[in-house]
Design goal:
Layout (H helix, E strand, L loop, with lengths): L5 E13 L7 E15 L4 E5 L6 H8 L7 E6 L2 E2 L5 H7 L3 E4 L13 H11 L6 H13 L16 H13 L5 E5 L7 H18 L2 E5 L3 H7 L2 E6 L2 E7 H6 L4 H8 L6 H9 L39 E4 L2 E3 L15
Parallel strand pairs: 3-8, 3-9, 6-7, 7-8
Antiparallel strand pairs: 1-2, 1-4, 4-5, 9-10, 10-12, 11-12
């Protein structure tokens, strides 16, 4: 079997929050990412979806060690990078990069595009010489920017062009894995399509592997090979995109899919007929519910859901869900 390029094993990130006042008492622990297992295979795009605040961006940063994990492991091409010393991790960072959501806030407004794209090369020991400038020119051409863009500043570009600069900066070190953290959500719809097409072209040309974080399920469906669904710090379902969109197992995934706009009247009617209604607000990660974290909003919750946290279990080939509804021993349980 092919080895995963990126693997998270029981990965967690908890933030200890201090209270106000003179003595700064401990106000609680925010469980942003909690015991997540995830695999991303070489050359694939894994879409990561869920409501705002569910831990998607935190998980993306943990995978490339922009944040340090509270617990668990991250393996890159089979090697545990969780506790690597900074000197060795610095070399590893050439293989993993990130494209941020805000294409303007992620770029230094006082630097030219050439300097922005060249900066990773300089950080990793290259000289700002003709060879580096040639590499920058190659990257700008690759992402569809003209040579004259090199001497201009970020404020002189549109949002889509700035995101192309961000992508060029991420690619300049020839990485293998890129986290796209809401990389198109701040762009107009027409520009989103251009950037997504660019990312797919680059993936084919360079053999890239993506974690594509987004809240727009239509965009995720277009670009992803597989999809993982997060809820309140945990992954609740993972499958090939066709299975996620056509045969979702987890009630939360079913509710997300039902909320995607349907352009055809017949499709809208069918969607309304089978729609799962989710009520209430997402609970706080400071005090998550016991058992299944979705049980407070789930219309199918059983008594066991309040007490026992369901493991992420494979119920069909390549299709895993964390839901007691599909476990034979709990199917006859009474509703909570």
């Amino acid at each position: 079997m092919m080895r995963p390029l990126i693997e998270a094993a029981a990965l967690s990130k908890h933030f200890s929050l201090g209270g106000g006042g003179l003595f700064r008492r401990h106000a609680g622990t925010l469980r942003a990412v909690d015991n997540v297992d995830l695999r991303i295979m070489p050359g694939e795009t894994l879409g990561l979806v869920g409501e705002s605040g569910c831990g998607k961006s935190t998980l993306g940063r943990l995978l490339i060690r922009l944040m340090e994990a509270t617990d668990g492991q991250v393996l890159f091409d089979g090697a545990d990078i969780t506790g690597l010393p900074q000197a060795r991790m610095r070399e590893m960072r050439k293989s993993m990069q990130i494209v941020f959501q805000d294409p303007y806030g992620a770029l230094n407004p006082r630097m030219t595009v050439e300097d922005i794209v060249m900066e990773p090369l300089v950080i990793h020991g290259a000289k700002a010489d003709a060879a580096a400038r040639k590499r920058v020119a190659q990257m700008l051409e690759l992402v569809g920017l003209p040579p004259r863009a090199a001497t201009r500043f970020p404020h002189e570009f549109s949002g889509g062009q700035r995101q192309r600069v961000g992508i060029a900066r991420a690619l300049v070190l020839n990485p293998r894995f890129i986290v796209c953290d809401e990389a198109v959500s701040a762009l107009d719809v027409s520009v989103q399509a251009q950037i997504i097409n660019l990312l797919q072209d680059l993936q084919r040309e360079m053999g890239l592997t993506y974690l594509f974080i987004a809240h727009d399920l239509a965009v995720v469906r277009h670009i992803s090979d597989r999809v993982a669904v997060m809820y309140l710090g945990r992954v609740v379902e993972v499958a090939e995109k066709a299975a996620i969109y056509d045969r979702p197992l987890h009630p939360y995934t079913q509710a997300l899919i039902a909320a995607v706009p349907e352009p055809h009247p017949a499709g809208r009617a069918a969607r309304r007929a089978g729609r799962i209604r989710v009520e209430g607000d997402i609970p706080s990660a400071l005090n998550p519910p016991s058992g299944c974290r979705f049980h407070t909003r789930c219309p199918f919750a059983m008594a066991v859901c309040r007490e026992v946290s369901p493991p992420l279990r494979e119920y069909a080939p390549g299709h895993a869900a964390a839901c007691h509804l599909h476990d034979p021993q709990y199917r006859q349980e009474p509703r909570a």
